[in-house]
Specification:
- The protein is α/β, with parallel strands linked by helices.
- The chain has two domains: 124 residues, 3-Layer(aba) Sandwich (Rossmann fold), CATH 3.40.50; 58 residues, no CATH class.
- Helices cover 31% and strands 27% of the residues.
- It has five helices and eight strands, in the order βββαββαααβαββ.
- A five-stranded parallel β-sheet has the order 5-6-7-3-8, with helices on both faces. A three-stranded antiparallel β-sheet has the order 2-1-4, with helices on one face.
- The termini are far apart.
- The chain binds adenosine-5'-triphosphate.
- The site of adenosine-5'-triphosphate (ATP) has 11 residues, from α1.
- GO terms for molecular function: ATP binding; ATP hydrolysis activity; transmembrane transporter activity.
- It comes from Altererythrobacter xiamenensis.
- This is Heme exporter protein A.
- It holds the Pfam family ABC_tran.
């Protein structure tokens, strides 16, 4: 899997506050980075800058490989049954493994349920199913464990390990660490003035 993600001398400003500055990182195949930091320090903002969804106040980002972002807003139509909402993306992503992915994420029995009725954890698993179908080399995961039970938390660690072993990159903002090899901590507090 061809993947590279590099940030150079990033600064982030939200409203009239600069949250962090002087942040550089360079990630290659297999790297898993754990962004740590207190509420409001700027973890989500950093992920959105890395994804290209938020302009940095200073600095630049280089990406080689498509981005798969999972945050608290799953891009699944709330009014469609889950199977149809995921099917929309499998057609766009050209994924032929939708059934196997749904099975892996314990979603098979929920495919007829409208997305808006899913529980927090089920919704998170649905967002992860979309991510897997996307086959993107760079995963940006914002609080992927929140709302998940122990079994699902173990599953997320497994998926990240497999992604890393296949040469993918994962950047994970989380208040809890994942049990994953090559899990490297990145303390955002070091870049706060
Ligand atoms: N659109 C915006 N305009 C102004 N300030 C914003 C905007 N979006 C976020 N912020 C502020 O930027 C700061 C960082 O927010 P961010 O969501 O990146 O933090 P976080 O580290 O992910 O927090 P948490 O751990 O609570 O999820 C917060 O103080 C937040 O209020």
């Amino acid at each position: 899997m061809q993947a590279r993600l590099a940030a150079s001398d990033l600064a982030c400003r939200r409203g009239d506050r600069v949250l962090f500055r002087g942040l550089s990182l360079a990630l290659g195949p297999g790297d898993v980075l754990h962004i740590e930091g207190a509420n409001g320090i700027g973890k989500t903002s950093l992920l959105r800058i890395l994804a290209g969804l938020l302009a940095p106040y200073a600095g630049s980002v280089e990406r080689e490989g498509a981005i798969g972002l999972v945050d608290e807003r799953p891009a699944l139509d709330p009014d469609l049954p889950l199977g149809k909402a995921l099917g929309f993306w499998s057609r766009i992503d050209g994924s032929s493994e939708a059934a196997a992915i749904a099975e892996r994420l314990a979603l098979t029995d929920l495919l007829d349920v409208p997305v808006r009725y899913l529980s927090t954890g089920q919704r998170k698993r649905a967002a992860l199913a979309r991510l897997m179908g996307q086959d993107a080399p760079i995963w940006l995961l914002d609080e992927p464990l929140s709302g998940l039970d122990e079994v699902s938390r173990g599953l997320v660690a497994e998926l990240v390990s497999e992604h890393s072993a296949a040469g993918g990159i994962a950047v994970i903002a989380s208040h809890q660490p994942l049990v994953v090899e090559r899990f490297e901590a990145f303390a955002l507090a070091e870049y706060v003035l």
